[in-house]
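Project channel, design review

CF: Before we commit to the Acetitomaculum ruminis DSM 5522 constructs, I'd like one complete example in the thread so the newer folks can see what an input/output pair looks like. Taking Flagellar basal-body rod protein FlgG.
RD: sounds good, go ahead.
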Amino acid sequence: MVKGLYTAYTGMIYQMKKMDVLTNNLANADTTGFKKEGTTQIAFDEVLAVKIKDSSDYNLAKGIGDISLGTKIGQTYRDYSQGAYEVTDNTYDLAIDGNGFFAVSFTNKAGQSSIKYTRDGAFTLTKEGYLVTKDGDFVLNRDAALSSNGNVVNGIPQGAIRLDTALDTTIESSGEIYQNGNLVGTIGLIDFADYNYLEKYGENMYQPVAGATVIDSNARIDQGNLERSNINVVSEMVDMIQLTRAYETNQKVITTIDETLDKAVNSVGAL
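CF: and here is what came back for Flagellar basal-body rod protein FlgG:
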C-alpha cells in the first residue's frame, strides 16, 4: 500500500461527507426552526511500521516507527443555538425564546402516530379548530407533552388543542391560550436534560432515543413571530470554498503519486 494514496483518499471521503452536510444546511437556510449541522474528523489509529525480511534479529520484525493512515469521519453534531426572529404578526405563528421544543403528534405514511418535537412554530387552525403544523400534525398541550402520551382516538391525539375559530386568540409568553378572556388551553413546551439523546427526524423535527429525559421548559413563547434557521449563509459558502480546495488538493496528491508510480514502473523499472 502506498501510504500517500490512502491518506489522500481518506481525506476526500471526509470532505465528501462534510460537503453533504454543508449543502443540506444551505438547502434549509429558509426552513423555520432548522438547526445547523457540522461534522468532526478523527485520525485513524497509528500503526507500527516494521522492517521486512530483516534477519539481523533472528527473523523477528523490528519496528522503525509509527505511521498514520489518514483521517476518518467522526460524529455529526448539531448547533442548537437560537436563530433570529422573523416578525409575521400572524396569530398562530409562535417562536420560542430560550431552550425548548413544541410537542406535536406526528403520523407517518403507515398511519402510525408518535410524538415528535420541533421549534417550527408556523401553526394554523383546521376548520374544526384544531391547532396544527403546516403539515397537518396536531400540536399538543402541556400535559400531553410532559407525559409523552401519543395515544390517538378516532384520528385525534389525546392532548390536541382545539379552539373556537370564530373568536380572537391571545397566546401568552407562558403558552396559555385565551379566547374572550377565558383560558382554553396551554401550548406544550418541553425541554430535554441532554440534547445528546435527541436524533433528527425529517427537516426540523426531533425524536428522543433511549436515555432521553423530558423536562419542563423555562422558555417563553412570542406570538406573531417565527424563529428562522441559525445558519449563516455567508460562512457556509466560505466553508464550502475551503472544502472544495482541500478536495482538489487531495486529488492532485493522488495524481502526482500515480504519475510517479507510472514512471517508476515503466521508465526506471525498464532499465
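RD: helpful, thanks. The chain has a mean pLDDT of 87.
CF: The two ends are 24 Å apart (CA to CA).
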